[in-house]
Protein backbone atom coordinates (compact mmCIF):
# COMPACT_ATOMS: atom_id res chain seq x y z
CA UNK A 1 0.00 0.00 0.00
CA UNK A 2 1.00 3.61 -0.49
CA UNK A 3 1.04 6.24 2.20
CA UNK A 4 -1.47 9.08 1.97
CA UNK A 5 -0.27 11.65 -0.51
CA UNK A 6 1.47 8.92 -2.53
CA UNK A 7 0.99 7.99 -6.16
CA UNK A 8 -2.45 7.01 -7.40
CA UNK A 9 -2.58 4.98 -10.61
CA UNK A 10 -5.79 5.36 -12.56
CA UNK A 11 -6.30 2.77 -15.26
CA UNK A 12 -8.96 4.13 -17.57
CA UNK A 13 -10.08 0.96 -19.42
CA UNK A 14 -13.23 2.02 -21.19
CA UNK A 15 -15.03 3.61 -18.24
CA UNK A 16 -15.20 7.06 -16.70
CA UNK A 17 -13.19 6.86 -13.51
CA UNK A 18 -12.34 9.26 -10.69
CA UNK A 19 -9.59 7.95 -8.40
CA UNK A 20 -9.76 8.64 -4.68
CA UNK A 21 -7.22 7.89 -1.89
CA UNK A 22 -8.57 6.80 1.45
CA UNK A 23 -6.40 5.77 4.41
CA UNK A 24 -3.36 5.34 2.20
CA UNK A 25 -4.84 2.61 -0.03
CA UNK A 26 -4.65 2.43 -3.81
CA UNK A 27 -8.18 3.03 -5.00
CA UNK A 28 -9.41 0.59 -7.62
CA UNK A 29 -12.18 2.38 -9.50
CA UNK A 30 -15.37 0.45 -9.91
CA UNK A 31 -15.61 -0.88 -13.45
CA UNK A 32 -11.87 -1.42 -13.75
CA UNK A 33 -12.02 -4.06 -11.03
CA UNK A 34 -14.65 -6.28 -12.62
CA UNK A 35 -17.94 -4.61 -11.80
CA UNK A 36 -20.55 -5.07 -14.53
CA UNK A 37 -21.41 -1.40 -14.81
CA UNK A 38 -19.36 1.84 -14.41
CA UNK A 39 -20.21 4.42 -11.78
CA UNK A 40 -20.30 7.69 -13.76
CA UNK A 41 -20.56 6.89 -17.44
CA UNK A 42 -22.01 4.36 -19.82
CA UNK A 43 -19.80 1.65 -21.28
CA UNK A 44 -19.04 3.76 -24.34
CA UNK A 45 -17.73 6.71 -22.34
CA UNK A 46 -14.28 7.45 -21.09
CA UNK A 47 -12.92 10.31 -19.02
CA UNK A 48 -9.99 10.02 -16.65
CA UNK A 49 -9.61 12.66 -13.96
CA UNK A 50 -6.86 13.31 -11.45
CA UNK A 51 -7.41 13.80 -7.75
CA UNK A 52 -5.39 16.89 -6.93
CA UNK A 53 -2.43 14.72 -5.92
CA UNK A 54 0.33 13.50 -8.23
CA UNK A 55 -1.59 11.09 -10.45
CA UNK A 56 -0.75 8.90 -13.43
CA UNK A 57 -3.49 8.94 -16.06
CA UNK A 58 -3.66 6.43 -18.90
CA UNK A 59 -5.99 6.30 -21.89
CA UNK A 60 -6.77 3.09 -23.75
CA UNK A 61 -6.70 2.52 -27.50
CA UNK A 62 -10.38 3.15 -28.20
CA UNK A 63 -11.97 6.41 -29.25
CA UNK A 64 -14.92 6.29 -26.90
CA UNK A 65 -17.65 8.80 -26.31
CA UNK A 66 -17.31 10.74 -23.04
CA UNK A 67 -19.63 10.60 -20.10
CA UNK A 68 -22.88 12.52 -20.61
CA UNK A 69 -21.77 15.19 -18.15
CA UNK A 70 -18.27 15.59 -19.56
CA UNK A 71 -17.48 19.18 -20.47
CA UNK A 72 -15.06 18.40 -23.29
CA UNK A 73 -15.10 15.94 -26.15
CA UNK A 74 -14.29 17.15 -29.67
CA UNK A 75 -14.58 14.74 -32.55
CA UNK A 76 -11.73 12.34 -33.17
CA UNK A 77 -9.93 12.55 -36.52
CA UNK A 78 -11.65 9.40 -37.75
CA UNK A 79 -14.84 11.44 -37.90
CA UNK A 80 -17.14 9.16 -35.99
CA UNK A 81 -16.24 8.82 -32.32
CA UNK A 82 -14.83 10.84 -29.47
CA UNK A 83 -11.23 10.71 -28.17
CA UNK A 84 -10.09 9.84 -24.67
CA UNK A 85 -10.32 12.74 -22.24
CA UNK A 86 -7.62 12.98 -19.59
CA UNK A 87 -8.09 15.80 -17.11
CA UNK A 88 -4.91 16.85 -15.33
CA UNK A 89 -4.11 18.84 -12.24
CA UNK A 90 -0.85 20.04 -10.67
CA UNK A 91 1.82 17.34 -10.64
CA UNK A 92 -0.13 14.87 -12.79
CA UNK A 93 1.59 12.79 -15.47
CA UNK A 94 -0.68 11.67 -18.33
CA UNK A 95 -0.13 9.10 -21.06
CA UNK A 96 -2.73 8.90 -23.79
CA UNK A 97 -3.69 6.07 -26.06
CA UNK A 98 -2.52 5.18 -29.55
CA UNK A 99 -5.53 7.08 -30.90
CA UNK A 100 -6.58 10.70 -30.61
CA UNK A 101 -6.64 12.06 -27.05
CA UNK A 102 -7.75 15.25 -25.35
CA UNK A 103 -5.74 16.48 -22.37
CA UNK A 104 -7.62 19.07 -20.30
CA UNK A 105 -6.02 21.27 -17.64
CA UNK A 106 -8.13 23.56 -15.47
CA UNK A 107 -6.46 26.76 -14.32
CA UNK A 108 -5.02 27.84 -12.01
CA UNK A 109 -2.38 25.19 -12.50
CA UNK A 110 1.24 25.42 -11.44
CA UNK A 111 2.87 28.49 -12.87
CA UNK A 112 -0.21 30.61 -13.47
CA UNK A 113 -0.21 32.47 -10.18
CA UNK A 114 2.89 32.08 -8.06
CA UNK A 115 5.41 31.00 -10.68
CA UNK A 116 5.99 27.53 -9.13
CA UNK A 117 7.02 25.25 -11.97
CA UNK A 118 7.79 21.99 -10.17
CA UNK A 119 4.18 20.78 -10.27
CA UNK A 120 3.49 21.49 -13.93
CA UNK A 121 1.34 18.71 -15.41
CA UNK A 122 3.29 16.46 -17.79
CA UNK A 123 2.10 14.62 -20.89
CA UNK A 124 4.42 11.92 -22.20
CA UNK A 125 2.96 10.97 -25.58
CA UNK A 126 1.27 14.05 -27.00
CA UNK A 127 1.02 13.65 -30.79
CA UNK A 128 0.97 16.98 -32.59
CA UNK A 129 -1.80 17.24 -35.15
CA UNK A 130 -3.75 14.38 -33.56
CA UNK A 131 -4.10 15.07 -29.84
CA UNK A 132 -5.46 18.27 -28.35
CA UNK A 133 -4.59 20.25 -25.25
CA UNK A 134 -7.42 22.25 -23.68
CA UNK A 135 -6.61 24.96 -21.13
CA UNK A 136 -9.61 26.00 -19.07
CA UNK A 137 -9.68 29.41 -17.41
CA UNK A 138 -12.29 31.12 -15.25
CA UNK A 139 -13.89 33.54 -17.71
CA UNK A 140 -15.56 35.49 -14.91
CA UNK A 141 -12.41 36.00 -12.85
CA UNK A 142 -9.65 36.73 -15.35
CA UNK A 143 -8.90 38.12 -18.76
CA UNK A 144 -8.01 35.96 -21.71
CA UNK A 145 -4.46 34.63 -21.41
CA UNK A 146 -1.51 34.90 -23.73
CA UNK A 147 -0.52 31.40 -24.82
CA UNK A 148 3.00 30.61 -26.03
CA UNK A 149 5.22 27.61 -26.72
CA UNK A 150 8.83 27.11 -25.70
CA UNK A 151 10.82 24.23 -27.12
CA UNK A 152 14.21 25.52 -25.96
CA UNK A 153 13.99 25.45 -22.17
CA UNK A 154 13.72 21.67 -21.66
CA UNK A 155 15.55 19.11 -23.85
CA UNK A 156 13.23 17.01 -26.05
CA UNK A 157 10.13 18.70 -24.70
CA UNK A 158 7.83 21.66 -25.31
CA UNK A 159 6.55 23.86 -22.52
CA UNK A 160 3.12 25.46 -22.88
CA UNK A 161 2.94 28.84 -21.14
CA UNK A 162 0.02 31.05 -20.13
CA UNK A 163 0.97 34.68 -19.62
CA UNK A 164 4.62 33.63 -19.65
CA UNK A 165 4.32 30.98 -16.93
CA UNK A 166 4.37 27.20 -17.60
CA UNK A 167 1.11 25.29 -17.40
CA UNK A 168 1.99 22.03 -19.22
CA UNK A 169 5.11 20.10 -20.21
CA UNK A 170 4.83 17.93 -23.33
CA UNK A 171 7.60 15.34 -23.13
CA UNK A 172 9.12 14.15 -26.40
CA UNK A 173 7.49 16.97 -28.37
CA UNK A 174 10.00 19.23 -30.09
CA UNK A 175 7.77 20.67 -32.82
CA UNK A 176 4.05 21.33 -32.64
CA UNK A 177 1.40 23.62 -34.04
CA UNK A 178 -0.36 26.15 -31.85
CA UNK A 179 -3.66 25.02 -33.35
CA UNK A 180 -3.26 21.92 -31.10
CA UNK A 181 -3.89 24.18 -28.08
CA UNK A 182 -7.40 25.41 -27.31
CA UNK A 183 -8.38 27.95 -24.66
CA UNK A 184 -11.79 27.75 -23.03
CA UNK A 185 -13.13 30.42 -20.69
CA UNK A 186 -15.48 28.61 -18.32
CA UNK A 187 -18.35 30.58 -16.90
CA UNK A 188 -18.14 33.11 -19.71
CA UNK A 189 -20.97 33.96 -22.08
CA UNK A 190 -18.47 33.37 -24.88
CA UNK A 191 -16.85 29.97 -24.20
CA UNK A 192 -14.40 30.45 -27.05
CA UNK A 193 -11.98 32.94 -25.60
CA UNK A 194 -10.45 36.13 -26.86
CA UNK A 195 -7.02 34.57 -26.98
CA UNK A 196 -3.41 35.62 -27.37
CA UNK A 197 -1.31 32.96 -29.09
CA UNK A 198 2.45 33.31 -29.44
CA UNK A 199 4.80 30.97 -31.27
CA UNK A 200 8.53 30.91 -30.48
CA UNK A 201 9.66 29.19 -33.68
CA UNK A 202 8.84 26.80 -36.50
CA UNK A 203 6.86 26.92 -39.72
CA UNK A 204 3.33 26.93 -38.32
CA UNK A 205 -0.31 27.23 -39.28
CA UNK A 206 -2.13 29.17 -36.56
CA UNK A 207 -5.90 29.51 -36.61
CA UNK A 208 -8.11 31.69 -34.48
CA UNK A 209 -11.73 30.98 -33.72
CA UNK A 210 -14.57 33.39 -32.98
CA UNK A 211 -13.10 35.52 -30.20
CA UNK A 212 -10.87 38.56 -30.45
CA UNK A 213 -7.59 36.75 -30.95
CA UNK A 214 -3.98 37.90 -30.69
CA UNK A 215 -1.64 35.64 -32.63
CA UNK A 216 2.13 35.91 -32.86
CA UNK A 217 3.77 33.90 -35.60
CA UNK A 218 7.23 33.82 -34.04
CA UNK A 219 10.37 33.88 -36.16
CA UNK A 220 9.75 31.48 -39.03
CA UNK A 221 7.41 31.17 -42.01
CA UNK A 222 3.89 30.94 -40.61
CA UNK A 223 0.30 31.15 -41.79
CA UNK A 224 -2.05 32.89 -39.37
CA UNK A 225 -5.81 32.86 -39.93
CA UNK A 226 -8.01 34.99 -37.70
CA UNK A 227 -11.21 33.63 -39.24
CA UNK A 228 -14.46 35.28 -38.14
CA UNK A 229 -13.01 37.23 -35.25
CA UNK A 230 -11.55 40.52 -34.29
CA UNK A 231 -7.96 39.37 -34.31
CA UNK A 232 -4.54 40.73 -33.55
CA UNK A 233 -2.00 38.80 -35.57
CA UNK A 234 1.75 39.23 -35.23
CA UNK A 235 3.95 37.77 -37.93
CA UNK A 236 7.33 36.17 -37.45
CA UNK A 237 9.23 35.27 -40.60
CA UNK A 238 7.96 35.24 -44.20
CA UNK A 239 4.32 34.97 -43.18
CA UNK A 240 0.94 34.77 -44.88
CA UNK A 241 -1.71 36.24 -42.58
CA UNK A 242 -5.44 36.53 -43.18
CA UNK A 243 -7.80 38.42 -40.90
CA UNK A 244 -11.48 37.71 -40.39
CA UNK A 245 -14.76 39.58 -40.73
CA UNK A 246 -14.11 41.71 -37.66
CA UNK A 247 -11.74 44.59 -36.97
CA UNK A 248 -8.34 42.91 -37.15
CA UNK A 249 -4.86 44.11 -36.27
CA UNK A 250 -2.23 42.27 -38.30
CA UNK A 251 1.45 43.02 -37.83
CA UNK A 252 4.16 41.76 -40.14
CA UNK A 253 7.79 41.12 -39.33
CA UNK A 254 11.28 41.58 -40.68
CA UNK A 255 10.43 39.06 -43.41
CA UNK A 256 8.50 39.46 -46.65
CA UNK A 257 4.90 39.07 -45.48
CA UNK A 258 1.51 38.84 -47.16
CA UNK A 259 -1.21 40.41 -45.02
CA UNK A 260 -4.91 40.28 -45.94
CA UNK A 261 -7.40 42.21 -43.82
CA UNK A 262 -10.57 40.67 -45.23
CA UNK A 263 -13.81 42.29 -44.02
CA UNK A 264 -13.91 44.88 -41.27
CA UNK A 265 -11.95 48.03 -40.45
CA UNK A 266 -8.48 46.53 -40.16
CA UNK A 267 -5.02 47.74 -39.12
CA UNK A 268 -2.30 46.13 -41.23
CA UNK A 269 1.34 46.81 -40.35
CA UNK A 270 3.92 45.50 -42.78
CA UNK A 271 7.16 45.46 -40.83
CA UNK A 272 10.58 45.85 -42.43
CA UNK A 273 10.40 43.41 -45.35
CA UNK A 274 9.08 43.68 -48.89
CA UNK A 275 5.44 43.16 -47.97
CA UNK A 276 2.24 42.61 -49.93
CA UNK A 277 -0.78 43.99 -48.08
CA UNK A 278 -4.46 43.96 -49.05
CA UNK A 279 -7.04 45.73 -46.92
CA UNK A 280 -10.05 44.46 -48.90
CA UNK A 281 -13.45 45.53 -47.51
CA UNK A 282 -13.75 48.11 -44.77
CA UNK A 283 -12.05 51.37 -43.80
CA UNK A 284 -8.53 50.08 -43.33
CA UNK A 285 -5.26 51.53 -42.03
CA UNK A 286 -2.22 50.13 -43.85
CA UNK A 287 1.42 50.89 -43.08
CA UNK A 288 4.04 49.33 -45.30
CA UNK A 289 6.98 50.09 -43.01
CA UNK A 290 10.52 49.70 -44.26
CA UNK A 291 11.07 47.83 -47.51
CA UNK A 292 9.58 48.09 -51.00
CA UNK A 293 5.91 47.28 -50.41
CA UNK A 294 2.86 46.57 -52.56
CA UNK A 295 -0.19 48.05 -50.80
CA UNK A 296 -3.84 47.85 -51.88
CA UNK A 297 -6.66 49.37 -49.88
CA UNK A 298 -9.63 47.76 -51.63
CA UNK A 299 -13.14 48.98 -50.99
CA UNK A 300 -13.75 51.49 -48.24
CA UNK A 301 -12.16 54.74 -47.12
CA UNK A 302 -8.60 53.60 -46.49
CA UNK A 303 -5.50 55.31 -45.09
CA UNK A 304 -2.26 53.93 -46.51
CA UNK A 305 1.33 54.91 -45.66
CA UNK A 306 4.15 53.45 -47.70
CA UNK A 307 6.97 54.02 -45.23
CA UNK A 308 10.60 53.79 -46.25
CA UNK A 309 11.72 52.58 -49.68
CA UNK A 310 10.00 52.52 -53.08
CA UNK A 311 6.36 51.49 -52.69
CA UNK A 312 3.43 50.75 -55.00
CA UNK A 313 0.20 52.02 -53.41
CA UNK A 314 -3.34 51.60 -54.77
CA UNK A 315 -6.32 53.01 -52.93
CA UNK A 316 -9.13 51.16 -54.71
CA UNK A 317 -12.74 52.23 -54.36
CA UNK A 318 -13.56 54.79 -51.68
CA UNK A 319 -12.23 58.13 -50.48
CA UNK A 320 -8.66 57.16 -49.62
CA UNK A 321 -5.61 58.83 -48.11
CA UNK A 322 -2.38 57.59 -49.69
CA UNK A 323 1.06 58.69 -48.51
CA UNK A 324 4.23 57.45 -50.12
CA UNK A 325 6.51 58.73 -47.33
CA UNK A 326 10.18 58.05 -48.07
CA UNK A 327 11.35 56.59 -51.37
CA UNK A 328 10.34 56.84 -55.03
CA UNK A 329 6.72 55.74 -54.81
CA UNK A 330 3.82 55.15 -57.17
CA UNK A 331 0.39 56.14 -55.83
CA UNK A 332 -2.96 55.60 -57.55
CA UNK A 333 -6.15 56.65 -55.86
CA UNK A 334 -8.76 54.65 -57.73
CA UNK A 335 -12.47 55.43 -57.74
CA UNK A 336 -13.42 58.06 -55.18
CA UNK A 337 -12.27 61.43 -53.81
CA UNK A 338 -8.72 60.57 -52.78
CA UNK A 339 -5.80 62.42 -51.24
CA UNK A 340 -2.36 61.39 -52.54
CA UNK A 341 0.77 62.57 -50.74
CA UNK A 342 4.03 61.62 -52.35
CA UNK A 343 6.32 62.54 -49.47
CA UNK A 344 10.08 62.59 -49.91
CA UNK A 345 11.52 61.06 -53.06
CA UNK A 346 10.72 61.16 -56.76
CA UNK A 347 7.13 59.97 -56.77
CA UNK A 348 4.46 59.30 -59.36
CA UNK A 349 0.95 60.27 -58.30
CA UNK A 350 -1.96 59.07 -60.39
CA UNK A 351 -5.27 60.79 -59.71
CA UNK A 352 -6.97 59.24 -62.71
CA UNK A 353 -9.07 56.12 -62.86
CA UNK A 354 -10.14 53.82 -65.67
CA UNK A 355 -12.40 50.79 -65.78
CA UNK A 356 -10.56 49.36 -68.79
CA UNK A 357 -10.76 49.82 -72.54
CA UNK A 358 -9.71 53.02 -74.30
CA UNK A 359 -8.35 55.53 -71.80
CA UNK A 360 -9.96 58.30 -73.84
CA UNK A 361 -13.41 56.72 -73.50
CA UNK A 362 -13.57 55.23 -70.00
CA UNK A 363 -10.71 57.21 -68.45
CA UNK A 364 -11.03 59.18 -65.23
CA UNK A 365 -14.56 58.44 -64.09
CA UNK A 366 -13.80 59.09 -60.43
CA UNK A 367 -14.33 62.13 -58.26
CA UNK A 368 -11.74 64.87 -57.75
CA UNK A 369 -8.55 64.01 -55.86
CA UNK A 370 -6.00 66.01 -53.89
CA UNK A 371 -2.47 65.25 -55.11
CA UNK A 372 0.62 66.49 -53.27
CA UNK A 373 4.02 65.40 -54.53
CA UNK A 374 6.01 66.66 -51.58
CA UNK A 375 9.80 66.85 -51.79
CA UNK A 376 11.54 65.43 -54.86
CA UNK A 377 11.08 65.40 -58.61
CA UNK A 378 7.54 64.04 -58.94
CA UNK A 379 5.28 63.02 -61.79
CA UNK A 380 1.64 63.79 -61.12
CA UNK A 381 -1.05 62.42 -63.43
CA UNK A 382 -4.01 64.77 -63.06
CA UNK A 383 -7.56 63.60 -63.59
CA UNK A 384 -10.91 65.32 -63.64
CA UNK A 385 -11.48 67.78 -60.78
CA UNK A 386 -8.05 66.97 -59.26
CA UNK A 387 -6.04 69.56 -57.34
CA UNK A 388 -2.29 68.98 -57.71
CA UNK A 389 0.63 70.43 -55.77
CA UNK A 390 4.14 69.52 -56.82
CA UNK A 391 6.03 70.68 -53.74
CA UNK A 392 9.78 71.11 -53.79
CA UNK A 393 11.68 69.73 -56.76
CA UNK A 394 11.32 69.66 -60.53
CA UNK A 395 7.85 68.22 -61.06
CA UNK A 396 5.99 66.97 -64.13
CA UNK A 397 2.24 67.63 -64.29
CA UNK A 398 0.45 65.36 -66.76
CA UNK A 399 -3.03 65.96 -68.15
CA UNK A 400 -4.71 64.96 -71.39
CA UNK A 401 -7.50 65.12 -73.90
CA UNK A 402 -9.54 62.78 -71.67
CA UNK A 403 -10.72 65.95 -69.86
CA UNK A 404 -13.94 66.43 -71.77
CA UNK A 405 -15.43 69.63 -70.32
CA UNK A 406 -14.12 72.80 -68.71
CA UNK A 407 -16.15 72.06 -65.58
CA UNK A 408 -14.02 69.03 -64.72
CA UNK A 409 -10.58 70.44 -65.58
CA UNK A 410 -7.90 69.86 -62.95
CA UNK A 411 -5.83 72.54 -61.25
CA UNK A 412 -2.11 72.91 -60.42
CA UNK A 413 -1.39 75.11 -57.39
CA UNK A 414 2.35 75.74 -57.56
CA UNK A 415 3.76 75.54 -61.09
CA UNK A 416 7.34 76.83 -61.33
CA UNK A 417 8.23 77.57 -64.98
CA UNK A 418 11.94 77.48 -64.17
CA UNK A 419 11.90 73.77 -63.36
CA UNK A 420 8.42 72.20 -63.72
CA UNK A 421 6.95 70.71 -66.90
CA UNK A 422 3.39 70.34 -68.21
CA UNK A 423 2.73 67.30 -70.37
CA UNK A 424 -0.43 66.60 -72.40
CA UNK A 425 -1.21 63.08 -73.60
CA UNK A 426 -3.54 62.53 -76.55
CA UNK A 427 -4.82 59.92 -79.00
CA UNK A 428 -3.19 60.55 -82.40
CA UNK A 429 -5.95 58.60 -84.18
CA UNK A 430 -8.52 61.06 -82.88
CA UNK A 431 -6.37 64.20 -83.04
CA UNK A 432 -3.43 63.82 -85.45
CA UNK A 433 -2.23 67.43 -85.14
CA UNK A 434 -3.39 68.84 -81.81
CA UNK A 435 -3.26 72.55 -81.07
CA UNK A 436 -2.30 73.72 -77.58
CA UNK A 437 -3.07 77.27 -76.44
CA UNK A 438 -2.37 79.11 -73.22
CA UNK A 439 -4.70 81.79 -71.84
CA UNK A 440 -3.56 83.86 -68.85
CA UNK A 441 -5.88 84.39 -65.90
CA UNK A 442 -7.43 87.84 -65.76
CA UNK A 443 -5.64 88.51 -62.46
CA UNK A 444 -2.28 87.50 -63.92
CA UNK A 445 -1.60 84.72 -61.36
CA UNK A 446 -1.69 81.79 -63.76
CA UNK A 447 -3.01 80.42 -67.03
CA UNK A 448 -5.46 77.95 -68.55
CA UNK A 449 -4.19 75.19 -70.82
CA UNK A 450 -6.51 74.39 -73.74
CA UNK A 451 -6.43 71.36 -76.02
CA UNK A 452 -8.15 72.03 -79.35
CA UNK A 453 -9.88 75.00 -77.71
CA UNK A 454 -11.10 72.87 -74.74
CA UNK A 455 -9.92 73.74 -71.21
CA UNK A 456 -8.10 70.74 -69.74
CA UNK A 457 -6.00 72.29 -66.93
CA UNK A 458 -5.71 75.52 -64.98
CA UNK A 459 -2.24 76.29 -63.64
CA UNK A 460 -1.28 78.79 -60.95
CA UNK A 461 2.13 80.25 -61.78
CA UNK A 462 1.94 79.57 -65.52
CA UNK A 463 1.13 83.11 -66.64
CA UNK A 464 2.99 83.99 -69.81
CA UNK A 465 3.92 80.34 -70.48
CA UNK A 466 4.96 79.67 -74.06
CA UNK A 467 2.70 76.89 -75.48
CA UNK A 468 5.76 75.47 -77.24
CA UNK A 469 7.14 74.52 -73.80
CA UNK A 470 4.19 72.21 -73.15
CA UNK A 471 5.18 68.68 -74.06
CA UNK A 472 2.85 66.52 -76.18
CA UNK A 473 2.91 62.73 -75.93
CA UNK A 474 0.99 60.31 -78.11
CA UNK A 475 -0.80 57.47 -76.33
CA UNK A 476 -2.41 54.92 -78.62
CA UNK A 477 -5.13 53.06 -76.71
CA UNK A 478 -5.84 49.37 -77.13
CA UNK A 479 -8.87 49.44 -79.43
CA UNK A 480 -9.61 45.79 -78.71
CA UNK A 481 -9.94 46.37 -74.96
From TrEMBL:
<dbReference type="InterPro" id="IPR018511">
    <property type="entry name" value="Hemolysin-typ_Ca-bd_CS"/>
</dbReference>
<dbReference type="GO" id="GO:0005509">
    <property type="term" value="F:calcium ion binding"/>
</dbReference>
<feature type="compositionally biased region" description="Acidic residues">
    <location>
        <begin position="58"/>
        <end position="68"/>
    </location>
</feature>
<dbReference type="GO" id="GO:0005576">
    <property type="term" value="C:extracellular region"/>
</dbReference>
<feature type="region of interest" description="Disordered">
    <location>
        <begin position="58"/>
        <end position="92"/>
    </location>
</feature>
<keyword id="KW-0964">Secreted</keyword>
<dbReference type="InterPro" id="IPR001343">
    <property type="entry name" value="Hemolysn_Ca-bd"/>
</dbReference>
<dbReference type="InterPro" id="IPR011049">
    <property type="entry name" value="Serralysin-like_metalloprot_C"/>
</dbReference>
<dbReference type="InterPro" id="IPR050557">
    <property type="entry name" value="RTX_toxin/Mannuronan_C5-epim"/>
</dbReference>
<dbReference type="Pfam" id="PF00353">
    <property type="entry name" value="HemolysinCabind"/>
</dbReference>
<protein>
    <submittedName>
        <fullName>Hemolysin type calcium-binding protein</fullName>
    </submittedName>
</protein>
